[in-house]
Design brief:
This is DNA mismatch repair proteins mutS family domain-containing protein. Belongs to the DNA mismatch repair MutS family. Residues 136-145 have a biased composition (Polar residues). It holds the Pfam family MutS_III. GO terms for molecular function: ATP binding; ATP-dependent DNA damage sensor activity; mismatched DNA binding. By secondary structure, the chain is α/β, with parallel strands linked by helices. The chain has 6 domains: 2-184 and 204-259, Nucleotidyltransferase, domain 5, CATH 3.30.420; 276-283 and 307-469 and 569-595, MutS, DNA mismatch repair protein, Chain A, domain 3; 481-565; 602-804, Rossmann fold; 807-839, no CATH class; 853-885, no CATH class. Helix content is 47%, strand content 13%. It is built from 35 helices and 23 strands. The strands form 6 sheets. A 7-stranded mixed β-sheet has the order 9-19-20-21-17-22-23, with helices on both faces. The longest helix has 35 residues, at 377-411.
């Protein structure tokens, strides 16, 4: 704080006050090189496909964070560029992981060039962006692209437990604290004051409750990045604070992923996009040396849509599902491709493509081994099969499929081009969308490059012999003349040496065998001297001496040259097989649409915020039960759907169904319905009951409150919120009050929301009005028979209006609850409705009481008889009757 005050005084032209303790110093030990520049430090942490950022801006005294997925280098560069343009850091804090990733480090330490930074400043409301002079803009353009200094932090700064502890105990956000304390009233503490007899000090709300509505503590990358940033700030800018506490004005998310639909971990779980099934004996791990750590993908939307033929396709589909699109043009392109492949005339060509897609594998491991000079012979064989498959697929795409696409576009009315175009040449993408998709796919496949590389590899490698030997790569005969001569010499080496041996044995009959050394020829000195005997030996050609080494070296040189040629076209190869992976995903979505009766949705205008679904179905539930479809109508006049109805009537399933169908639209898939017209959203937020854990210091109601608080803080007019039975963990009056206030606040934010509730009093007491304030009440209908002998039947059909009751007793009967308990509950309900006092159960109905009339009569009779040994038959029969009645 002293340093910031001194900087403010310097900007105003006044000298900072002297400090007598350090001889007139500024009040800090180590000042940054440029004291006029506000500190903007950015912490980065990468783990797998996720990368997290946390930036502190000293000028605004706020923290900006982002947690994104980066499936490729292009995605990483885009996310990093957006974060750097938004935060404009002057110091980067990195871990050893980032240091080891040279491309990522280079991207982080280079300020992005272009108009992105200027547009970001204007988006933040920087009015000086337009008022800058030409010289200042030129100077800014010159400085843009300069290197940003970075600092390596210790591994302990990114330790998960320490980072979470620092966030919870050493971070204070003033906006969150003011919101939390603004609702307190002196009357709220009157009860505790009356109990204690004096005014007790009010305890500040838990830091976890307020931060959990902003920060996703389930994201380890975000927790580590934010924790490392706070650790650095505690040692530098906030080291003079009491307890080294980092106090900031605000904390917010950086809008770096505007091209994808945002879903948090809770949204993925609620919509069941992915699911992990652990081994049933996972609790018995390490028992008698056994391990049950295996897990697999459970029943989820991913397993439903995954019909890919290649491993690369499965990985790409998972990437698609973690990053749903927000670009309407890209979504429509996927719809066009699915529509094309579903046409009956394209089925033969699609079958050929599906057969060859199984040969497409991931290129990353092969290219990495080539870069490290540790390539295996099987890598070349796999690459040749992949190139063969790519060549066959490209031939099918450029031939039959493109011709069919051209004809279908013309039949569909896209006939703005001349008839003599014949499907060749440049076509208008809007007039010929199917042809444009095929052409874009062929362009990404780099047909000339892959064709030349395929021919080169086939000319160099003998595939048949290499696949048999499996220990080294065999070069084709005729490719390298010098290698062919060396191989020919090596193959005739046995015959040459055998002939030499026969000539030697004719003159020298004695051979001596020595271990390790081999065979020696014994010469009789009495008959031959050494020089004469040596000169009589037949000579071996000079090229025989190192023929084996020559063959191996030449083969290694040829393989090395081939690896260099492959690495020269690495980007083209990655692009080709990335396009084939996308094609595999499109065909998988097309197969699901054909088998499960999905239809092509229509994308409504983004500002319209419409969700119009006719006979929508939940794609997972309809595989398990006889599903009853329901309609959904949401627009600017019906932004809030409040769903009421009994338990077990399908309210929660309906809310999930709306979320899943909106998600599938952003995925580019067809939808399980009769027709759909949906706008694009920026995020899907959920407030569903989650699994409780002792690791989370929150009660059931507190978790609901945290979820609602997060929805209200993050919601925008383009947000879809799903809230399920909020407030059931507290008193009905408190739950109703908070629920009504939250609905009214969400209506002001103009977001779309589906809310399920049992609080019918919201409408009966007039707190909410159906059809007013963009609130629409709907109910799940249940058939309740007049006779008590018949069971109620849930119809699972959505209707307008508010449910008359939650039908708890009906559901209790369906659950098999004891009839006496249900009847007693019915009596209590009737008494409460009529305002009568609930009477206790009479003693005669308590079967366990020893004071029932029958028991008392039996006891009196038993005590009245002096001795039962001599009792008469009448007394014995009477006692038997009384005991039988008991």
């Amino acid at each position: 704080r002293e340093r910031r005050a001194a900087q403010q005084l310097e900007r105003e032209g006044r000298a900072p006050p002297s400090d007598s303790r350090n001889g007139g110093g500024a009040g800090w030990d180590e000042a940054p090189p440029d004291t006029n520049a506000a500190l903007r430090v950015l912490a980065v942490y990468e783990q797998g496909s996720r990368i997290a950022f946390a930036c502190y801006n000293e000028e605004s005294n706020e923290i900006i964070f982002e947690d994104a997925r980066s499936s490729s280098g292009t995605d990483t560069e885009r996310v990093v560029g957006a974060v750097l343009a938004e935060t404009q850091p002057n110091l980067i804090l990195v871990s050893n992981r980032v240091i080891a990733n040279a491309p990522l480090l280079e991207c982080l330490t280079t300020m992005p060039v272009g108009e992105e930074g200027r547009s970001t400043a204007m988006r933040r409301g920087d009015g000086n962006a337009e008022a800058k002079s030409a010289d200042e803009q030129q100077q800014q353009q010159h400085t843009t692209g300069e290197s940003i200094p970075y600092q390596l932090l210790k591994s302990s700064a990114f330790e998960p437990r320490q980072c979470k502890s620092v966030i919870l105990h050493k971070l204070r956000v003033m906006t969150l604290m003011s919101r939390a304390m603004s609702g307190h009233h002196p009357e709220d503490f009157s009860h505790s004051q009356a109990l204690s007899g004096h005014y007790a000090s009010t305890q500040a709300p838990s830091n976890y409750h307020s931060l959990a509505s902003v920060i996703d503590f389930e994201s380890p990358t975000l927790v580590r990045a934010l924790g490392a940033l706070l650790t650095y700030l505690r040692q530098t800018a906030f080291r003079l604070e009491e307890g080294f506490t980092v106090t900031i004005n605000n904390i917010r998310r950086c809008p770096a992923s505007e091209s994808f639909l945002r879903l948090e971990a809770a949204s993925f779980r609620t919509l069941r996009i992915f699911a992990t099934d652990h081994h049933p004996l996972v609790a018995n791990n390490n028992v008698k040396g056994r391990s049950y750590n295996q897990s697999k993908e459970g029943f989820s939307l991913y397993t439903l849509l995954d019909r890919t033929k290649s491993k690369a396709g499965r990985e790409r589909l998972r990437q698609w599902m973690t990053q749903p699109l927000r670009d309407a043009a890209k979504i429509r392109q996927r719809h066009t491709a699915i529509d094309l492949f579903l046409h009956p005339e394209c089925h033969p060509a699609v079958s050929l493509v599906l057969e060859r897609l199984s040969d497409v594998v991931s290129m990353d491991a092969i290219l990495m081994r080539m870069q490290r000079c540790s390539t295996q012979p099987n890598d070349f064989l796999v690459l040749i099969r992949m190139l063969d498959a790519a060549y066959a697929i490209v031939s099918t795409l450029s031939g039959d499929l493109r011709e069919k696409a051209y004809m279908l576009d013309r039949e569909a009315g896209f006939n703005g081009m001349a008839d003599d175009a014949g499907g060749e040449g440049e076509l208008n993408k809007e007039l010929y969308p199917s042809v444009a998709y095929i052409d874009d796919l062929l362009r990404r496949c780099h047909v000339p490059v892959t064709r030349d590389l395929r021919e080169k590899m086939i000319a160099v490698i003998d595939v048949e012999i290499t696949s048999e030997t499996k220990d080294h790569v065999i070069i084709n005969w005729g490719y390298h003349d010098e290698l062919d001569r060396a191989k020919e010499t090596f193959e005739t080496l046995d015959e040459t040496l055998s002939e030499v041996g026969r000539q030697v044995l004719q003159k020298h009959q004695e051979l001596i065998s020595l271990k390790v050394v081999g065979f020696l020829i014994s010469i009789d000195k009495r008959q031959h001297n050494h020089d004469e005997a040596t000169n009589t030996f037949p000579s071996v050609p000079d090229d025989f001496e190192f023929v084996f080494t020559q063959v191996k070296d030449t083969e290694a040189m040829v393989v090395s040259n081939l690896e260099e040629e492959i690495l020269e076209v690495e980007s083209e190869l990655r692009s080709t097989f990335s396009a084939l992976s996308d094609l595999d995903c499109i065909l998988s979505l097309a197969g699901c649409a054909a088998d499960l009766n999905f239809v092509k949705p229509e994308i409504a205008a983004e500002g319209e915020g419409a969700i119009q679904i006719e006979n929508g179905r939940h794609p997972l539930q309809e595989l398990i039960v006889d599903f009853i479809p329901n309609d959904t109508q949401m627009d600017s006049d019906r932004r809030m759907l409040v769903v009421t109805g009994p338990n077990f009537s399908g309210k929660s399933c309906y809310a999930r169904q709306v979320g899943v169908l909106v998600y599938m639209l952003h995925l580019g898939s067809f939808l399980p319905c009769d027709s759909a017209r949906i706008s694009l959203f920026d995020q899907i937020l959920v407030g569903f009951a989650d699994v409780e854990s002792c690791a989370v210091p929150q009660s059931t109601f507190q978790r609901d409150l945290t979820a609602i608080a997060g929805i209200m803080r993050k919601a925008t007019p383009k947000t879809l919120a799903l809230i399920d039975e909020f407030g059931k963990g507290t008193a009905p009056a408190s739950g109703i009050a908070v629920m009504v206030s939250a609905i009214q606040q969400l209506c002001k934010k103009k977001c779309r929301a589906v809310v399920t509730t049992h609080f019918l009093e919201m409408f009966s007491l007039g707190l909410l009005e159906d059809g007013k304030g963009s609130v629409k009440a709907v109910q799940m209908s249940v058939f309740v028979p007049e006779s008590e002998d018949d069971d109620a039947v849930p119809l699972f059909k959505l209707e307008d209006g508010v449910a008359s009751s939650s039908a708890g007793l009906v559901v209790a009967r369906l659950a098999g609850l004891n009839k006496k308990v249900v009847n007693r509950a019915d009596g209590i309900i009737q008494a409460l409705r009529s305002g009568r006092q609930v009477k206790p159960l009479p003693e005669s109905l308590n079967c366990n009481s020893p004071f029932q009339p029958g028991v008392k009569s039996a006891i009196r009779l038993f005590l009245a008889v002096d001795g039962w040994t001599g009792a008469n038959d009448e007394e014995i029969e009477l006692l038997d009757e009384l005991v039988h009645v008991m």
